[in-house]
Each structure stands twice: as C-alpha cells, then as structure tokens.
Model the fold of this input.
Amino acid sequence: MTTADSTPHSKLAKYLRDDAVLGSVASIISWDEQTQLPPAATDLRADQSSMLAMMSHKRATAPELGEMIAAAERHVVEQKLGTDSTEATVAREARRDFDRSTKLPADLVEALARAQVVGHQAWVSARKADDFNAFQPHLDNMLGLKRQEADCVGHDGDRYNALLDDYEPGETSTGIEQVFTDLKDELVTLVAKIQDSGRVAPRDILRRHYPVEAQRNLSRQAAQACGFDFDAGRLDVAVHPFCTGIGPGDTRLTTRFDEHEFAGAFFGTLHETGHGLYEQNLPKIEHFGNGCGMAISLGIHESQSRTWENPVGRSQAFWEHFWPIARKFFPAALNDVRTDDFLFAINDVRPSFIRVESDEATYNLHILLRFELERAMLSGDLNVADLPGAWNERMQKYLGITPSKDSLGCLQDVHWSAGYLGYFPTYTLGNLYGAQFFESVTTHLGGEAERDSMFARGEFQPLLDWLITHIHSKGRRSSARELVNTVTGRELTAQPLLNHLKRKAAEFYGV
Amino acid sequence: MTTADSTPHSKLAKYLRDDAVLGSVASIISWDEQTQLPPAATDLRADQSSMLAMMSHKRATAPELGEMIAAAERHVVEQKLGTDSTEATVAREARRDFDRSTKLPADLVEALARAQVVGHQAWVSARKADDFNAFQPHLDNMLGLKRQEADCVGHDGDRYNALLDDYEPGETSTGIEQVFTDLKDELVTLVAKIQDSGRVAPRDILRRHYPVEAQRNLSRQAAQACGFDFDAGRLDVAVHPFCTGIGPGDTRLTTRFDEHEFAGAFFGTLHETGHGLYEQNLPKIEHFGNGCGMAISLGIHESQSRTWENPVGRSQAFWEHFWPIARKFFPAALNDVRTDDFLFAINDVRPSFIRVESDEATYNLHILLRFELERAMLSGDLNVADLPGAWNERMQKYLGITPSKDSLGCLQDVHWSAGYLGYFPTYTLGNLYGAQFFESVTTHLGGEAERDSMFARGEFQPLLDWLITHIHSKGRRSSARELVNTVTGRELTAQPLLNHLKRKAAEFYGV
Done:
C-alpha cells in the first residue's frame, strides 16, 4: 500500500522540489551578483557560486535520484498514464535532466568549464583589440569539446541536435532549417524593398533627454499594465538585462537606463516582462522543480518576451493607451512629437551590424546567419579560420552591408566563447512561435479590430489569460512543436511572422 | 611529514572556511529578505533559509569536524603555541562553537526553534493588544527552555552565564553587575540633575522636512568619510536596520529614512558604519571563517558602532566639518538654525519609555533594568507574572517615569520572545568598552584638542587606523575583557563612559 506521500511520483517530486529550492538560492546569488555585488566581493562570490553548483551537481547526479526516476517511470507504465499526465511529465523531464547530467564524464565537464572561463576572457580581449586570430584557437578548442559533449549525450548522426536539445528539447537542425529557409527567402527581399523605399524613420526623437526616474516609472507602469505582479517580483538595473524566475512568488526583471535614449530601457523592460509573465504563471506552487512547473524551452520562453515587446509593445493600439502617459512623463522630449512619427521611429527597419541593437525584422537575419555558421563549424564544413570571411559574405547577402571589422562582425557575441552552441536559433524560433500564437489569440479575442480596441483601452488581461491557459499553465507537458500544433491547430510555419512583418512594412514604408 | 596544506591547523581552517562560504550564502539570503524580497516570496524564502540552516548545522556538528579540532588542539599543545597564536585561536574558537552546537539535544533545538516562532507571533499580537497576560505563558515557556539550554551547555551554578557566553564569551553576570552598578549609581543622579536643570533642547529642528534623497547622500558621504569602503560594501534600506559582514569584500549596511526626521537615519547610518568598519577590517581574506577573522563579541562589536555614532558623530568637532555640508543638503530645513542649537538637539538627554528611541545617556538605564529583570526571571527570583510591576517600579526609580501601559514597558522589545536572554547587557558593555577605548585613542592622537581638530578637518583615518591596529586586526585572539586590558592598560570600569556623559551634561545642561 502506498500513501499519497510515498508514491514513486511523490517521492521524486519531493526530491526535485528540494533541488529547486537549492537552485533558487543559486538564482538569488546570481541575481545579487548582477545587480548588487560590491566590486571587491567577486572572489567570495565565485566561491559561493561554485559551492552551490557543486552541491546541485551532486544532487542532480545522485544514484538514489536515478532509482527514484526508474521507479516513477515503472509506475507510469504500470498505470498506463498518458504522456501529458503529471506523473509522466515529471518522470520524463527528470529522466532527461538526469541522463544529460550523468552522461558527461567529470573530466569533460571540467574541461568545458575551464574553456568557458579562458575562452570568455580571450573573447573579451579579442573583441577589444579587434583581433580574430587571438580568439580563433579558443573557438577551435571549444568546438572540439562541444563535439565530445554531443557524442557523450548521443545523437542521430548530427551533433548539432545533441547541443540544440539542451535549449530546445526535441528540436532538430533540419526542422529549423526548413522553417528558417522559408523565412529567409521572403525576409531578405522584404528588407531590401524597405531599404529601396527611400523612407527613413525619425529615430532622433528617441535620442532626446529622457530622465531616468521617469523612464523607471513608465517602465514599471507598463510592466504592471501587462500583468506583471510586483507583489511577486521586482524590477532592477543590470548591465546585461535579464529575467530570473527564482521560484514561487519571486520573479525578478532587470533593465538598464540611458537618459539619452528611450527605446532600449522601455522595450527591454517589456521584453523581460514577457519572460516574467511566463515565470509568474507557471504552476510553481504545486510543481516547483518538476517538469509540470517548468518552461518548455528557450524558444517558447522567447516567444513570450517577443510577443509583449513587439506585436503588443510596438503596436499602434498599445500606444493609443500609453502615448498620453508617456507625454506626461517626458513633456520636454515628446511635446512636439506627432504620434505617427513616434510609431514610425519605434518600428524602424534598417540593416545594421550589431544583433542586439537591430530591429524586429532584420534581427532574424542576424540569427539565420549565426545558425548556418555555427552548424557548419561544428560539422567541420567551415574552418574556424574562414569564419570572418563567411560571416561578412552572408551579411552582404542577407542585409546588404559588410562590417569593416570583426568586432562589428563575428566577434560581437559572447555565446560561442561560452560554449553556447545551438542557442542562437531559439531567438528566432521565439519570434516564429510568438507570431503564430498571436494569430490564434487574435482570433480568440474576436479579430484584429477587437484586440486592438482592448489594447487601446489598456486592457491586456484577456491576452495574458489566453497565454496562461494555453501556454504558461502547461509547464513541460508537451514539446514546443507539439504545443504549437495543439494551440494553433497547425504545424509551425514562417507565414505568421512574415505576415506580421509585411503588414508593418506596408504601413510604414509603403512596400 | 606534514606539508603546509595538510597540517591539522590548515585542514581545520579549510573546513571552517567552507562553512563560512556556506554561511555567507545564508547571509545574502537574509539580507535579501530584509531589503529586496517581494511579499509573495516569504514561503519560498523560509524553505531556502531552513535548507541552508540544516546544511550548516550538519557541517557544524559533523564528527569529522570534532576529530579535526582535537587534532588541531593536540598540535597546539605539542608545539607549545601561545593562546593568542593563530593556531591556538583557531582551535579554541572552533572548539567553543562545536561544543555549543553538539551539546544541545535535537529535541531541545527543535523546541527552542518552535518556541521562537510561536513566541514571536504571540509577542507581536500581545504588544499590539497591550495584553501582557497573553504573552506571559510564552515567556514562561521560553524561560524554561533557556534553563534547559543553560544546563546542557554547562555553567558554574549561574545559568545566566551559560546564555551570556553565547553573545559575550567569557563574561559573567557578576562581572557585569559590578561595572553596571558603578554606572547606575552615578548615572541615575546625573539624569535627574539634567531633568532638574530646566534646559530643554530644541528638538523640533530635527523634525522638519529632510528630503530622503539628500539624507541618503549625506549618510553615504558621512559613512565614506569615516572610512567605510563602498567598493566592498553597500548602504540600503531595511525596516529594522542592521549591518551584515557577509565575507571578504562584502559588508552591507542598512538604514531607514523618514523625510520628517533627520537624526534616525543619520545616526543610524553612523552606528551601522561602525559595525561595518569592524567587519571590513577584520582579517577575513586570510582568516575567513576561523577565530582570527571573527569579531570578539557582540559587546566589542557594539563598542565600534557606538563610538562612531556618539563620541564621534555627536561631537562638536565632527559637526564643524559636516555642518556646512548638511546645510547644503538641507537648505530649507537648516538655513535658520544655529550650530549650537543643532548640537544641543542631537545631544538632548530626556527620559523616555522606548529604549530604541532613547538618548546616549538614558539608554544605559534601559539596559540595566532589562539585565536585572531577565537575570531575576531566569533564576526564578522574579515570577513572570510580576514582570510588569517590577519593570514599572524600576523605570520610576531609574528614569523618574512610569509607562502607562505594557506596550510602552515590558512588551516593547522583541528579544525575550525570540529567546535572546543575555543579549541586552552587550549594548551597554559596548558603550563602556567604547568609552574606555576612546580615552586611549584620544591620548594616542595627542589629546582632546588635537583629536578634535582632526575631526573638524574631516580626518577620521587616524582614529580608524588605531581601531584597526588594536581591535579589528586581532580577531578573537583574546576575550573582550583581555582586549580592554591590553589596549587601555587597565580593567574595564564605568568611569570613561561616566566622564564622557558628565562632560556633555555640563556643556549642554550646565550640571
């Protein structure tokens, strides 16, 4: 006889919850490091973080956990429970994490950790000195280690899939290639047409004086209007903004302010708010630490941040509500600005070199290029020495511009130096998922006109409710692709995102 | 043969350092709870704190630690090392903590933890309802448990000493009684004379409008001038201000601001700065987690905070430097105020009911009363039911006033509800130590005139250097009383504090 507390499922869930509590301590330590830490405390912080990481690793690879998972799996089979049942989800996701953690030999884990630290330092110097040759051996070394990692984890012949799986479980490089190619074919043409339109957005109005305190207050007000619960979260300042879902009741957003620029902090906050809403509405009280309370993937997470940042935050309807509020916060900067000009400025599309500063449309071409290049480097089709040339060639082909130096090109991102291979595509997957979800929720809300009149009244709860019901509350009961199918009624395609970008291009550039 | 890394001493120090790193994580979690935590996250925070406490307790009571300490002790004996040597200090203090942790049976630890939580809640309600009877059984229960605790720890017949030892190692109730009686005899008379002088300080000037941002900036500037290193620390806001020395390079002060009151935040910050300077200058880089890098006692800690708050921060010399600065920060509030009136206001002595709002002189009478009462309750000489009467009687005797209700009397402090018996006297011990140290450092600096002219120039480094050399850098190499003897050349007496208070009484009240 098993009581409620001693089923294989409940035992496993209890163990995972304790892991999550320990992990949430590490999250606080990391948040504190990025928002509060005095400069002289970095050595202590490294000791604290590595102690917690060691404790977590020990628990995550403990043989007793393996036995608990096996028992929970047997229970699911015996009881013939469906794959999206709580028990099956918890067992499956625990297995996934356990296998990934235990398959890597200790010496590889250590070599990867060292390569990350050394590679990151080398990248910082190389980018500063604009010297790709200085970074090349570190990238070569990292690729070798990531190939070993992929082989240890196991794959179907394509090592890239093993790495991708860490960020976007179940996704494959060929699956991505298909939808990315569809996107690329039309997007390159669209961006070229926009360039040829001759119209230029009045972006200077975003570079006036926007006092920081007013930016902070407007950003908070916007996050709150979107549904972010400040009783269960915070907004602080960090050099590299992020959102961390620490645990039930504690989700923290960060942003950064520049008193001479409006868009970075405002849309950055909306972006992190989207991540924060997902974290706040995952069923963590019941399922903290197990698959039912966890985000599906980086791509699905990004779909939430992009939705609030772009189709919502840059829409005319959103600004019908927020324009008078923003003018009250920034009378000096905005009093002589026409709403249309402001909307054009925040929806400007313009090829540029730096991904993180790029617009909603060209952003995806930055990602496609990185996906193609990292895949080719991992397979060996592209020699690392040839990366700068391949990068510049694709920039010219996709965006019509060529960086004058590698610090504006292949040295701009931190990801590869840190071993994040397979991470880049999740950004554009997020845009694709988000656009397809947004079409469905628009239908649910009664069509575009009805949706926009809600936004114009400052009503975002109906949108959030839909996201909670169909996405947030589900945890990891399905894969990202399955979720898209279930929620939108069809396979993921590039069309919703393309339609959205084309509508905007027509509106602002007449193309 | 033992290498440097494998001596009994270095093994023990390594283990203690790891304990300290884990403890420093708990310190961050606690700081975050008091300064940052969203309200909805309190349950998660309780889980995080208790997990860390359990981990720390397990390490602190591990049999392997007991063996390491025994080996380190044998090493000290074999090598005939002096009691203030690094090795002897580390072994002795580790033994102290280990014995205290292992002597309490688990069921008593649990009962104390439960009584603390329940007792605290009962105290909050009882104080609010002004209902001592509702709190009485909880205090009775706590006293019973504290007697058991004292018996487990062991004592010389006076249980109070066993409890006191947790906060003020080596101190005894008879030792305290001696010096407190000397203090009381003269202080009661002095306070009565001040009352009879008929002079009243213009305290209203401290209750004007003092904008919070300016208070924050002035407080930071003062902390920095005293020597607090903001590259290795912070200043934030908390409901109950505190200082936490998290570890090497990370010491955090907190304060609270009231835009309608100046003194609370300013002198509160100076007080925490004093604690912070001790924490920042303990030799934690070499000795994190062992006795050589730890504060001696609560009393010595308090001596540092009181020194910067009172003899330094309320002195005329200090304000020769800070007065023009303060007037720039608060032109509206201070432009029509004479320096002398401001000095009188911040040095006002006036009997009042609430300890934490009382002045530099009467504060000690609040403490003496609590020391006498908690000692009598623990021994059984005073029944808990008779506490309110005994309290009020002593208030009348020492301060000439009687509280109209228990919430202004014996229900005002959190300490007893939380089981902090033996804690109160460390506050006045701090004032006593501090005054005696201050006499010595004054001599060292060339006398009062020379010292004051340094302060008037904003030079506090010579004072801090002396405190670092004679106190901070020593860690726990000696007991508090030994330190006083070594540093000041004589036993602790009440005279330095009395002299200081009498000088001020003469200056401001002409008595």
